[in-house]
Amino acid sequence: MKISVSFMLLLLLGAVPPSESVECQRAFPEDIYAVLRETTASLVQLKADMTLQATGQAAQLKTEVDKLKQQLKALEQCLKKTVSVFAEQSEQQKTEVDKLKQQTQVQQVAFSASLVVAGESRIGPVISDTTLIYKYVPTNIGNAYNSNTGLFTAPVRGAYHFEWHFAGDNSGGSAGWLVKNSQNVFAVYERQASGFMSASNGVTLLLEVGDIVFVRLAATSFVFDNLNHHTTFSGHLLFPI
Question: Which of 27, 146, 153, 154 is the most exposed place for a label (fewest CB within 10 A)?
Answer without folding.
Answer: 27
